Amino acid sequence: MKRKGSMLLSLVTAFVLLMVFASPAFCGGESEEGAVQESAVAGKEALPDVKLTFAAPHTPPQTYAVVDVAFIDHIKEVSDGKITLEYYPGGTLIGGNEAASELKAGTADFGWPRVGYTRHGYKLYNANLIWMYNLDPVTDIEAELEIYKKLYEKEEMYSEFDGIVPYGANASGTSAWLFTNYPIKSLADVKGKTIRANASWAKVITKLGGVPVNMPFSELYMALEKGTVDGVIGLPGTVIKGENLGDVIEYAMDIKMNQTPYYAWAFNERSWNKMPEAAREIFKTEELWLEDRVIEQLQNEEKPSIEYGKSLGIQFVDISEQDRNMLFVIMDEVCREACKALD
User: Fold this and answer.
1) Distance of alpha carbon 136 from alpha carbon 140, whole angstroms
2) pTM above 0.85, yes or no
3) Secondary-structure percent of the chain, ordered helix, strand, coil, rounded to 5
4) What is the C-alpha radius of gyration for the chain, rounded to an integer number of angstroms?
């Protein structure tokens, strides 16, 4: 995904160019760009080898594992092989609902904190998981990422990540779905059913008359297969194929709701702080690469995943305008209640 610049960015760029053209360096001396490039090269040459452990809940070729592996390769390339990430996929190092606590304790240097599944804490984080529901999941990506990061400039938000350093906001670029292992025609069919849902999504399910269940994604496949849960809400359509959920679901409904960005990755704070400054700068620079890469992967996989689901016999149900309007009302109620509870 290529991010388009805002008008403010254009004005700033114009001002910077004006200053560059008026500078002595542009008029004949060493260019500032050349100096920056030399500094970057010197920084890489001076950078000692940095080896980090990377804990993830997914396993290749699952969607997010593909992104993780691409990021590992990318960081190694841009650091000239100086930064390496030893990958522990499939929850082999960190997993379950307490991934954030384990990452904070230093079980890994970098990974998926999955704070949305944490049973205690992160109240502000969990409260904002659905509040951008009415934005377009494709055309509003740039805006929602900008808003989300501005939000996390607030100390109250950022301080929840005590002990870990959030990194890489996942904007998805796809809408949220409802998947079930029982027949559905409308959202009324959620009533009385157990649906895997975390944070604010759990409150949405409650208002629909269902019973929300908070569980790690790693346990979802087995739960759907055994009937421990009847469905799941809030995941992208890519999970049908990428996460193999197509094997254990019978019905799929695109609820056409945007998914608010969330910080998907994080560093252990001590690991981050003890890294050489040059290594931290590389990670800061390449954060946008990771954010764009995950959007690209999800959007590229969505249509093939849906077609794969159809080949398995999964029934795809269109959400009615009435249900979608009702869902908007519910989303609004949940967000207002979350604000009131935190005020």
Assistant:
1) 5
2) no
3) 50, 15, 35
4) 22
